[in-house]
Amino acid sequence: MLRFDLRHLRCFLQVAQELHFSRAAERLHMAQPALSRTIRELEAEVGTALFQRSTRQVSLTVAGEAFLKECRAGLAQIERGVAKARRVAEGTSGELRVAYMDFAINGRLPELVRLFRERHPEIRLELHYMPTSRQQAALLERRIDIGFMLDGMGSEVMTSYPLAEDSYVALLPATHRLADVPGLTLSALAQEPFVIGTGDDWFGYRETIFAMCRQRGFFPDIIQEASSSQGIFGLVAAGAGVSVYSSCVRNVQRRGIVVRELDDVRAAISIRAVWEREHPSPTVQRFAEFLLSVWGR
């Protein structure tokens, strides 16, 4: 193990620059004998002479030239590391693990991510798709830092911020008999075959849809299920059935589908950003400040 430190390297670099022990000692604000002793300690540890000394001049040996090149590169790397550590501690650099579900990524999340990256280019966002239930578990286990999910999270250690409030809409095949009917209601879909998200990935949303249907005296006839939004869109476009989705669907390119407001549904779909209230990461706190101040305006 090498037994020299940055003090030895800074002394070496100053002597290599001045090629004069007295001037180097003055620059370093130390006595010349102490500087000479420090250089001898360094040479002993390296195992070879780094300077040729005479009564008239000082010069680098071949080994000293090679050592100088590597020292400069090493110190530059250390200085970058120090600067990086300071930025991470300030929350202006680092990484954030962000999870999202379908309605968030089809809604306002892309705009938020773009703006955050513009303001904090040194913070790297790792984006992961996760249904709401998996996000909640991942937050508690600190496998993610921020979650964009349905309805937030009922935990005292978590806090949240509203990203969007979307409405419920009906998705109909473009050729459906109700596509142009004015005043469409959820009740009017009681006899229709439904396309809906799978139980594992869409559990919470399914329960909400089922509850709204039961309030209107029916249970949806689920003819097809899909694990993704694109699967739902494709099945509806193919005429497999109708679906109830978030109004964020209007941000997505789609063919063969008609989007209709549901006049008898007043409830909103709440998408919230959720994070640990006392999270130790400065980048999480920086993101929270961004949401509360910049994005909020």
Automatic annotation (TrEMBL):
Residues 4-61 form the HTH lysR-type domain. The keyword Transcription applies. One of its GO terms (cellular component) is protein-DNA complex. Pfam families: HTH_1, LysR_substrate. Gene3D superfamilies: Periplasmic binding protein-like II (3.40.190.10), Winged helix-like DNA-binding domain superfamily/Winged helix DNA-binding domain (1.10.10.10). PROSITE patterns: HTH_LYSR. Keywords: DNA-binding, Transcription, Transcription regulation. This is LysR family transcriptional regulator. It comes from Rhodovarius crocodyli.
